[in-house]
Amino acid sequence: MGLRARVRRTAVLAGAALLVTGALAGCDTGPGPASSGSLDWQRCEAREGGAAPGPEWRCATVEVPLDHAKPDGDTIGIALIRKQATRRSERLGSMLFDFGGPGGSGVEILPRAAAAYTGLGTRYDLVGFDPRGVAGSAGVRCRGDEEQERAYREVDMTPDTPAEEAAFVEDGADFGAGCLRLAGRILPHVGTTAAARDMDVIRRALGDAELTYFGVSYGTELGATYAHLFPERVGRFVLDAVVDPTADAVGHARNQATGFQRALENYLSDRGQDPQEGTRRVAELLRRVDRDPLPTSSGRQLNENLAVLGIVTPLYSRSSWPRLTRALDEAVDDGTGDGLLELADSYNGRDASGHYDTQNHAQRAISCADTRARPTAAEARALVPEFRELSPVFGPFLAWDTAGWCARWPVEGERDTPEASAPGAAPVLVIGTTGDPATPYEGARRMADELGDGVGVMVTNEGEGHGSYDGSDCVTSLVDAYFLDGKVPADGYTCS
User: Fold this and answer.
1) How many whole angstroms separate alpha carbon 145 and alpha carbon 151?
2) DSSP 330
3) Which of 78, 158, 342, 403 has the fewest CB atoms within 10 Å, counting from its CB?
4) pLDDT in tens, 8-52
5) Active site residue 436
6) Could you tell me which residues are beta bridge partners of residue 494?
7) CB neighbour list of residue 66: distance below 8 Å, 6 or more residues apart
8) 329 in active site
């Protein structure tokens, strides 16, 4: 139930993929089981709670090893979706997308977001996929809707007493136990390294000699992992809204406390409020809601956990700031929480009937498979003063989240921080937005440095929000020129 960078459900973000040579069927696609023509593209079926995408979209499944260390062992299917390039005679190859999360379904998101990529779709086949453990690719589920609802309602994510603290940790452990019970076969194998290896199988199945890739948010970490594993197969890569590869679990939480507080202050300034005074008022609202949850017209109550998520959600995009204003004004002036609850439900993937999607389940499983860190409640408690100083609004929530997220997780994590060095790879465009709340700007510079000299090409977008493509004309033009014409911008380029 943590506060993690999550795929936006409105105005889906984007990124693009760099330097690819003509990737045509018949090129050397490297070793491996899949080859061009091995995919059986069929009309896509509607998924639960949604409609089938239009007839221009086709779906397929590629088989990959459950455990890449045992290539002849059990396999799982990775779900794919594709829209072919509209100018077939000028086709450059396939462009693979990951929109982040982790846990976001590319099969579901790409058709909804495709209008943003119309130009790129003239010369590239647009391809989305569900990473392993997500939705149509052996998707992880850890608990049912009633259990999820009860946890959001009853578990205090910023515990104030020993009893609340014990319940908080126990809920985290119960979530992990549910993952093991319901998804035990896949659970040890959902990490980012395995997903990056799956991407190379996808590349071969598409018939491309190099991978062209557009990664957003967590998709930047996935893309950097691929570049580290397969630097010689990196084509045109764009990483937008960049995860800091030098941050461990606590460092990531610290970065987010800084980023969301910065975004909140920018929002308050835009409203004509003093950022410090406005922060104090929001923090006071959260304290009041913790003591006395707000009623809503649905009969549900808005508690502190949900109020924090309701405030977080519109900070992902400047276009959502008016919704935050209306929701905060309602909570303060009317004493009701409908607006913030609606925003929190969007973040949590809850529909009007009370059904939750499983992105949070996959997100947690992937994160805990990646990181070895398992901070204790005592260690989290010790972080609270520092984190509260960073952000009176979000800091305590994020400090406690370090302990609750992977509490007594049944699978061991792989590493402390991701490896992103990619010596010899083609240039990778790394785009950081100065007001990004979820993946703060400073992480983009660190990613560019980690990729290595001559590989990481840093681009600064001076603006607000989580991601920049289709939100900044400058960034969109620059990325399109890179993908379509191979024009690499100067390292340090700024879009203002």
Assistant:
1) 10
2) I
3) 342
4) 433 333 332 222 222 222 333 344 444 445 799 999 999 987 899
5) yes
6) 460
7) 73, 74, 75, 76, 185, 186, 189
8) no
